[in-house]
Amino acid sequence: MALAIEVVRTDNNERETISCASSPVRIGRSPLNNVVLAAPWVSLHHGLIHFDEQHANYSDLGSTNGTTVMVKDQEMKLHPMVPMQILGAGQPTAELRIGVITLRVRWETPSATGVPSAPALAALRTALRDAVQEPSANPVPAAAAPPQSP
Predict the structure, then answer these.
(1) Is 144 part of any domain?
(2) Is residue 126 part of a domain?
(3) Domain residues for 46?
(4) Is 31 in contact with 14 (CB distance < 8 Å)?
(5) pLDDT tens, residue by residue, 100-135
(6) Which of 29, 58, 34 lies closest to 46 in space, CA to CA?
(7) Using CA of residue 38, residue 73, residue 81, residue 106, what is the dihedral sign?
(8) At 142, phi and psi to the nearest 5?
(9) What is the CATH number of the domain that holds 79?
(10) Domain count, the chain
(11) Does a cis peptide bond (omega within 30 degrees of 0) precede residue 24?
């Protein structure tokens, strides 16, 4: 399972959705992060999302300005280095706030991640097997032998 993170700047309404297929997801101002937030109030290494097939946890990495999590329409300021479950049973989406940047985190469907479904993989295997078993209609010509010198 993968995560989709929609990054929304509430001051100018810029939006971007980032697909994250592997855990952990690093968030911050540094270009080394998976989710880069180019704003001066965002720490270089601001937060981290660890996830598996059933849960996702967010940790603020001791950032200067902190992270707020929206839980049932109430804001909760996170304590540094204390993971908080943001996705799981009964929690299909989460909202994190860092200044005027909102991160909407949700599970992403497999088809949206570019990973083919089981029927699509089966059809691809069949097509490849058939292509290997059938001789080509246009065989590649053999290279011509070099001219013999007298």
Answers:
(1) no
(2) no
(3) 2-111
(4) no
(5) 999 999 998 765 545 554 455 555 666 666 666 655
(6) 29
(7) negative
(8) -70, 150
(9) 2.60.200.20
(10) 1
(11) yes
Residue at 100 is within a domain = yes
To which residue do tokens 């304590």 refer? 79
Give the pair of three-digit tokens for residue 115: 């990973």
Residue 6 within any structural domain of the chain = yes
pTM above 0.85, yes or no: no
β strands within 66-113, DSSP E: 68-71, 74-77, 84-87, 93-98, 101-108
Residues 69 and 95: beta-carbon distance below 8 Å:
yes
| Contact in structure between 40 and 148 (CB atoms under 8 Å) | no
**For 88-107, what is the mean pLDDT?**
92
Report the pLDDT averaged over residues 24-39: 96
Bridge-based pairing state of the strands 35-36 and 25-28: parallel
CA 101 to chain centre: 18
